[in-house]
Amino acid sequence: VSLESLLLSYPGGETMAKRTTPKKNPDKKRVVRKKKGLTKRDVLRKCDQLSNWGKWGRNDQLGVLNYITPRDIVDASQLIKRGKVFRLGLNLDEDGPQNGLFGGRWNPMHHMMATGTDAVQGIQEELVGMRYADDFINLPTQAASQWDALSHVFYKDKMWNGYPAKLVDARGAHKNGIEHFADKMVGRGVLLDIARHKKKPRLADGYGITINDLERTAKAQGVEVRRGDFVVINTGQMADCLDRGEWGGYAGGNAPGLAFETVDWIYEKQIAGICSDT
């Protein structure tokens, strides 16, 4: 092991190595420094560096949805050409991806409280010649496709904007509940089909989508990600599971996803929301 490689393994050692290491002999093998892996410290530093807490006031419960303006919504509505509707969510049924291994979640269960069979057999009281059907669904709210509220994740015992985590109790979220998004999530959607751009049916589990991937895909598709946009990323994972008729580790297992470096891209673009098929 060379003196230079030893120095480079310590903080500040790069400068010392430059001062103490003689010129290299071109005939000798080159010493390559191993690239530093991502650490917990790196993640925590980015959490503080890219924080938007307080940006829209101490009482805010919308977060980056504040980037959307009324003008943005009007402009988005004018993009409609064919009026065709695309369903992006999973069915709320028992054939979903949940297997109980992640958070104890189960697939939605549909139950009937009143049926047509009840009606014709006279179990229901007749109301002016009319009877009815009624039902309910039993499910964890994370069971199928969903949009996470700002009360979903805690950082240092706090949730979005510094609200204490204890404000989410047995009765639900007293701050940052999803109900605040109900009339706010309207805007321009931008699909970045990473799998298609890479000419693959799906990205491999564990693949980290880079900033380069995002920008090249957008360029190839002729789209631009702007402030206040909703970015939809397709990896091909969901379609692959549906085509094969099995979910495997979809609910909490390995999956393709955004590489850590993309947090800077997301922050700088000032997007209003981001989601994927994973």
From TrEMBL:
One of its GO terms (biological process) is L-tryptophan catabolic process to kynurenine. GO terms for molecular function: arylformamidase activity. Signal peptide: none annotated. InterPro entries: KFase/CYL, KFase_sf. Pfam families: Cyclase. Residues 14-35 are annotated as: Disordered. This is Cyclase. It comes from marine metagenome.
